[in-house]
Each structure stands twice: as structure tokens, then as C-alpha cells.
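Problem 3 from the worked examples.
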Amino acid sequence: MDLRKVLIVEGGSDRKRVKRVLLEPVEIICTNGTVSPYRIEEMLLPYEDCDLYVFFDADESGEKIRALFKRAYPEAIHLYTERVYRQVETTPYRVLASILLAENFEVHPEFLL
């Protein structure tokens, strides 16, 4: 299997916002709220040969889910939005593009202006 990038976000609004910025095909998975270690493992089993990226909100809920992912998948790369924006879905597109570009994702150039 070719290495693929898998991006894990909290909800559908996060997925839509990030997907709009991305230029390359990336599998985006939503946790849809609170998850357990068992649910994380079950959700990511089909992606065990992929590069995992975690992109959660900068709030209490996002940090709790992030901690679970750090324990279950320490090899996952964690992306962080700035605390001032709190949520991925409210982060400006140009900021999202910069965050993703820093981790070698291909982004639409118009979001870098």
C-alpha cells in the first residue's frame, strides 16, 4: 500500500474547512466528539500503514481527545491551531494553509496570500 496521509479532525465543519484548503487528496476522518481508546483503534485500523495527522481544536475538548491520540498513536503528527481562534472551523483559511503547508501538505496557493 502506498503511504497516504490521513488527517483526523473533530467534526464535519472542521473537515469541510480543511478540505477546501487542501490541494492534494487526503483522507479526512471525523471523531465526532468524545472517543475512547477502543474507538480510536477501531476507527484507524484501516489506516495503519498511513501517515497520521491529528488536528483538533485549541479547547478543553480538543486537548482531551488529543491526549488519547498521543497515547494510542504516539507516531501521529499533531497540528495546532492558534489559541486565539480556538477551533479549526473558525481558523482563517490563510492560517490553516500555513499550518498544513508547514507539515508538507499541498494547499491551494490562493489561501497563502
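Problem 4, a separate protein:
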Amino acid sequence: MAGARAAIRYAKAVLSLASDRKTAEVVNNDLKLIANTLAESKDLSEVLQSPVIPSSIKKATLLEVFKNSNKTTLSLIDTLVTNNRIDILGHVASKYNQLFDESKGIEVATVTTAIALTADLKKKVLAKAKALTGKEVEVENIIDESILGGFILRIGDVQYNASVANQLNKLKREFTLN
């Protein structure tokens, strides 16, 4: 992934600056909003990636869309525009969120399901993930209908695949080997 190392460096620098200013949590919320907006808005992502659109227009667009952001967040946008790295804003935002969670001892558990998790099920997953890790855990639900049913739980580098699609693939491999 192009710019991944640069994104980590920018994220670390912003986290350090925000921590010094005691605005790390506010900046985290701003950058979560930015990451989600860029993930959901194909048009905005394309504007940032386009080499044809001048940096001044990219900056003006971002400052208008995220005008209620913290001063530190706005200075990150300004720095990325100045350094011609605005195309990695989404990566920087994601890395910052990850680093912020790590600094607070929060682990993110990603649960992929075919349908949205109910509040009760989310509580159960949260309790189980907390028991497994011994840390505070946030649950992120990803909906992927291709898994048919069941779930895929990912905490850090560990993944537990209890999806129907995975079970069917195992059966298919067993039958083709015999």
C-alpha cells in the first residue's frame, strides 16, 4: 500500500501533538469521522486521489466538509496539502485511530456477519472478546452477505472463522480430496 509508512509517521506525529495539547480524544473523533466519510464517499476519495485537481481546491473542499474539526485536525489537513500527501489522509486517519486505541489499551474486535448484530448479541461478543484479551474491547460489525451465516471474529492478529461459507468450503475440500 503506497504511503502506508508515511501515514504511520503522520499519525504518530499528530497523536503526539494532540496528546501534548490534551486534545487526543477530540482529534480521534475528528479522524474517525474523516476516515468514515472517505470510506463512504467515493466522490470525495476520488477528489483527493486525483492528480488533476489542484491542492488548493482539495484543501478548500476538506476545510468546508470538516469545518467543525479541532485545530490540530485542520493543521494536519494543511500539512498534508503543503507536503503534497493529501491523498493519504484516509490512511493517516485510520492509523491515528488505531494508535489512539492502542495508547488507551483498547482492542478492536471486528465481527463479520451476514446480517447486522443485535444489541444483545453485540453484548455477548463484547464480553467474550474482553475475556479473551483481558483488555477493553470495541466491537466493529461488518456485514458481508457472502458468508451466508455464522460469523468471523477478528481480534488483532487472531481470527476465528465460524461462517457457514467456511464450513461449506471445508466440506467441499474434504469431498474433492477423497
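Solution to problem 4. The CA atoms of residues 47 and 57 lie 9 Å apart. The beta strands are 106-113, 136-143, 150-155, 158-163.
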